[in-house]
Amino acid sequence: MTAAAASVRGRAWVGDAPLFAPVDLVLHPGGWTCLLGPSGVGKSTILRLIAGMETGARFEGEVTRNRPVALMAQDSGLIPWLDVTGNVTLGARLRGTLRASASSQHADGQPGQEADPTARAVALIEAVGLTDRAHHLPANLSGGQRQRVALARTLFEDRPLVLLDEPFSALDARTRAQMQDLAARLLDTRTVLLVTHDPAEAARLGDRILLLRETGLTDWPIASPRPKAAARPYDAPEVLSLQADLMRGMMA
Amino acid sequence: MRTVAALIVTVLLLWQGIIWLAGMPPFLLPSPLRVLDALWLNRAEIARHAGFTLTEVVLGFALGSALGAALAVAMGFSQKLTGVLRPILTFSQTIPVFALAPILTLWLGFGMAPKIAMTVLIVFFPVASAFLDGLMRTPQAALDLAQVMGASRIRIMRHLRIPAALPSLATGLRLAAVYAPIGAVIGEWVGGARGLGALMIHANGRMKTDLVFAALLVLSVMTVIFARAVAIALHRLLRRYGV
């Protein structure tokens, strides 16, 4: 077995109240790991620990990560004054690697260490199906379109490890299913940690499903492998039965 | 606009009515017509003084805003600096600017400098305060992303925090534009012979109350126009920036 892509070992408190019992989460390289659980058990805290962000909780233990990450969350975090292209290339702008030739008006003019960011952005915007909206501002996009932009921005970062913090939970059921398909296709070659409270989402996307409850972390058995670069069909009997299983596990 | 015009006419009529009924002597309360008369007779002198005041206001506003904005950005960078500066700034605002005017005149002379300094003192606080407030309220989702993307603090400030705080800065600037003339006029009251403030003090000393009112009227109109111009400029700027 190869080295872990990331790991979290330890426990956390919010104030004096324990947030989660001791967990030992090891994220293996490749594929989708779904961290499933109800709200308030510390799923997002684990993700934020891996990302190296502020958590607001007190954590005692050890976090490791051996590769750079990209982040996508429920709040798309789109910058309202940048158009779709500007938002997709935000990382380059913030690192000062966006070239002066880029369409943006506040480009920095440092020659890129990243190969032509604008061309990559154009390709990614096409991949998420927003080519005709490349110059729209976020205010003129629907919730689903915003998450498409966020997905393109995440892909633009081109990081081997991608952290998804309930990215589709604010979307309607149909848009959510479409986004799951799109994400499964576009993030195929990467190691993905998906934090979700939706058993149906975990059942569709997880190569491995970790159920986080107040009592601790459970590695949930999965019968059928996920098809390559795709989500499992939302209506397949084995997916529905896995979903029911997970729901029972969450209720237990 | 119609309501405003009606209100002004009503106030003018009341004013004139009080003078007729109470038989006020003009050196106590001149009639509106007398004020207009004084305005017309002294138009050249008033315009010259208004020019000085406007120059002080514009320069003081620009300097004070720049200082306030720079201070806000510096404080936005460092919690420590904010912790030290915030109480000092609040304390500085408890000192009445009226009390500072004579000292500034003593230090900076009778020219424009102390008036501009007074305006700066009045302007910088609302600007710094509103801008800092905006800088501290950047959406957390964007800051999280920036951190994971490996952005430096300077770039986060420049590309996220400052643009996101521009509406707050605009609020501070609009407020400061209304207050700026007060600083200039207080400065003029205390020392020097130029500007609408100085004109008012001298006219008051000679019982030329109608001239005081005329100067006051010009000052008010000037302030309204200046504040409006600043507001329009900010509105255009913000729209172009898209925030």
String of helices and strands of chain B: HHHHHHHHHH
H/I helix tally of chain A: 8
Please outline the major beta sheet of chain B: none
Radius of gyration of chain B: 22 Å
Q: Estimate the helix proportion of chain B, in percent.
A: over 70%
Q: Give the number of DSSP strands of chain B.
A: 0
Distance between the termini of chain B: 29 Å
Uncertain segments of chain B are none
Q: What would you give as the CATH superfamily of chain B?
A: MetI-like
Largest interface: A-B, 25 and 20 residues
In short:
By secondary structure, chain A is of the alpha/beta class.
Write the topology of this structure:
The complex is a heterodimer of chains A (252) and B (243).
Chain A: E1 6-14, E2 17-27, E3 31-36, H1 43-51, E4 58-65, E5 69-73, H2 84-88, H3 90-95, H4 117-127, H5 143-157, E6 161-165, H6 173-186, E7 191-196, H7 199-205, E8 208-213, E9 216-220, H8 237-251
Parallel strand pairs in A: 3-7, 3-8, 5-6, 6-7
Antiparallel strand pairs in A: 1-2, 1-4, 8-9
Chain B: H1 2-22, H2 32-41, H3 43-77, H4 79-94, H5 97-108, H6 113-135, H7 140-148, H8 153-190, H9 196-205, H10 209-241
